[in-house]
TrEMBL record:
GO terms for molecular function: acetyl-CoA carboxylase activity; ATP binding; carboxyl- or carbamoyltransferase activity; zinc ion binding. It catalyses: N(6)-carboxybiotinyl-L-lysyl-[protein] + acetyl-CoA = N(6)-biotinyl-L-lysyl-[protein] + malonyl-CoA. This is Acetyl-coenzyme A carboxylase carboxyl transferase subunit beta. Keywords: ATP-binding, Cytoplasm, Fatty acid biosynthesis, Fatty acid metabolism, Ligase, Lipid biosynthesis, Lipid metabolism, Metal-binding, Nucleotide-binding, Transferase, Zinc, Zinc-finger. NCBIfam families: accD. Zn(2+) binds at C68, C71, C87, C90.
Length: 318
């Protein structure tokens, strides 16, 4: 057996020494004329300890979570559901589906109305894809058959009809079936003399149905007028966002208009108005608080107080 580890001239096995830590060895080896790099142990820099950063467990890795679009904090979906989709950190009101909205609002759900109506393709409309194909995709994505959901149920002990727009379904746009369902909701409310509540969240009329979509504005307005003549209360809750033909019809014809904080409400979008008037429109233009200040709505209500507020108002109106 031969010894392979022969000492070489360059001493490769000697480890690189930190010059700051090497005062003693240098002073031993070198002559007295060379200056020592540090005088005392007090001026000697403290050797650094390498930090080991442990991966922090975030809520995402433990449970499905949602990021707040305003404060960007993560909240578990379970916590959000219990808090009615209001951010516990900054009080931002996140979007809700129509079914979640009505389940949160009503104390008891008895019946779903308007399920007999189905969308056709009256204009054989094709944009980037045919309208029936687009509808099918939306139905698969949302699990809903149309953009408006109507329930008859109870708010506390009071019988009510409540409907809500699902913004995920083609931007909550108002087509023929949305009109049909709203009119059915109004007719049931009228027949039984029970209040109608509508949670609006829509981009406006549905262009794929052309003038048939615009006609729903008149139909829904006529149904609301019949409620008014019979003294049946109709309350609108404006949620983020409400625009276009829905603002121009059923969303602004209520006996009382409530809105959620910071909801965007208008007819034309902010950018379109800016281009037309050639002015920059500052915040809070078209926000619920701005509309309240200008007398367009009656009250801005926190989502946690909506049930109580609507019930109190209805108790007075009825
Ligand atoms: Zn937040």
């Amino acid at each position: 057996m031969t010894n392979n580890s022969k000492p070489t001239k360059t001493q490769p096995n000697k480890k690189a020494v930190d010059p700051a830590m090497d005062c003693g060895s240098q002073s031993d080896k070198k002559t007295a004329t060379t200056e020592p790099k540090c005088e005392t142990w007090l001026s000697r820099p403290v050797p650094r300890v390498k930090r080991h950063t442990l991966p922090q467990l975030t809520a995402v890795e433990t449970e499905p979570s949602t990021q707040c679009p305003q404060c960007h904090s993560m909240t578990t979906n379970t916590a959000l559901i219990f808090n009615s989709y209001v951010c516990p950190h900054c009080d931002h009101h996140l979007a809700m589906t129509a079914r979640e909205r009505l389940a949160d609002f009503l104390d008891q759900i008895e019946q779903e109305l308007g399920q007999q109506f189905h969308t056709g393709d009256p204009l054989s409309f094709v944009d980037s894809k045919p309208y029936p194909q687009r509808m099918q995709q939306m139905q698969q994505k949302t699990g809903e058959s149309e953009a408006l959901i109507v329930f008859k149920g109870k708010l506390r002990e009071m019988d009510v009809v409540a409907c809500a727009f699902d913004f995920r379904f083609m931007g909550g746009s108002m087509g023929s079936v949305v009109g049909d369902r709203f009119v059915e909701a109004a007719e049931v409310a009228l027949e039984r003399k029970i209040p109608l509540i509508c949670f609006a969240a829509s981009g406006g009329a549905r262009m794929q149905e052309g003038v048939l979509s615009l006609m729903q504005m008149a139909r829904t307005a006529a149904a609301i007028e019949r409620l008014r003549l019979s003294g049946v209360p109709y309350i609108v809750v404006l949620t983020n966002p409400v625009y276009g033909g829905v603002t121009a019809s059923l969303a602004m014809l209520g006996d009382i208009h409530l809105a959620e904080p910071k909801a965007m409400i208008g007819f034309a979008g902010k950018r379109v108005i800016e281009q037309t008037v050639r002015q920059t429109l500052e915040e809070p233009f078209q926000r619920a608080e701005y509309l309240l200040e200008h007398g367009m709505i009656d009250q801005v209500v926190h989502r946690h107080q909506l049930n109580d507020t609507v019930h109190r108002l209805l108790a007075k109106l009825m």
